[in-house]
Design goal:
It is built from 4 helices and 8 strands; from the N terminus they run H-E-E-E-H-E-H-H-E-E-E-E. It has 238 residues and is α+β, with helices and mostly antiparallel strands. The chain has one domain. Helix 3 runs antiparallel to helix 4.
Length: 238
């Protein structure tokens, strides 16, 4: 065992010891221990962004991943093995840059015995209800301020920016999520007399026998009048 492995093991053991003592890690106290896959898995992420003209940018990435026992939990190693980008011709150069990018910076992941990611900085919650509540709170602070109405263009930009931030945050329970689906919407009065709205949807499905991720989806839909724009991501284990 090299020094890096020793440090990783110590961090994981310390985090597990703190589970009953801290707010976010106390979640693990209500979750059962999981069995980590022994065979490699294929993790896929599909990201969709709507553009103002109705076109979309679609990015699909896949990683080959393997779990390694680490104390009572595990470490998941992985490498990117496939990427596909679909974009309008005008964005061909951007698509080429995205296709050449290796988006494996989130790996490896250390997991506790219940499948939660250890030492994760994103306060994304655990379970779809809490995740949607956190997301709505985040959007409310940006676009739902009483007495400070945004114009239509400001509203669309604000929601788009917050949606991009939301889907960039990997949830702590991504690999062993609590299954369920929740949708919540908010209307917003705009400064130019228009009425807009944003809708957050989060849903998770798991394999019944193992609790391992089957699919995890997050989407944010922005509506103004008859127009709508979508930002969404789907994580899957194939």
């Amino acid at each position: 065992m090299n020094n890096n492995d020793r440090r990783s093991l110590l961090r994981a053991m310390v985090a597990l010891a703190l589970v009953p003592l801290t707010g976010t890690r106390a979640i693990a106290a209500t979750r059962a221990a999981v069995s980590f896959p022994q065979d490699p898995i294929r993790l896929r992420r599909t990201l969709v962004r709507s553009l103002k003209d109705g076109a979309t940018i679609d990015v699909i990435r896949e990683w080959s991943c393997q779990f390694e026992k680490l104390g009572a939990g595990a470490r998941m190693h992985g490498r990117q093995v496939a990427v596909e980008v679909a974009a309008p011709p005008a964005l061909k150069a951007m698509a080429a840059i995205e296709e050449a990018r290796n988006a494996s910076g989130f790996l490896p992941l250390e997991l506790d015995r219940t499948g939660l990611i250890v030492e994760w900085s994103h306060e994304t919650g655990s379970g779809v209800d809490e995740a949607v509540r956190r997301a709505i709170d985040m959007f409310d602070k940006s676009v739902g301020k009483a007495g400070d109405k945004q114009t239509t263009s400001e509203f669309v930009v604000s929601v788009g920016r917050m949606a991009a931030e939301l889907v960039s945050q990997i949830p702590r329970d991504l690999l062993f999520p609590t299954p369920g689906r929740k949708v919540e919407a908010r209307p917003v009065e705009l400064a130019d007399g228009m009425t807009g709205s944003y809708e957050v949807m989060i849903g998770a499905e798991v394999h019944d026998e193992t609790g391992l991720l089957r699919s995890f989806e997050r989407s944010v839909t922005t509506r103004v009048g008859d127009s709508a724009r979508l930002s969404s991501e789907v994580w899957e284990i194939l």
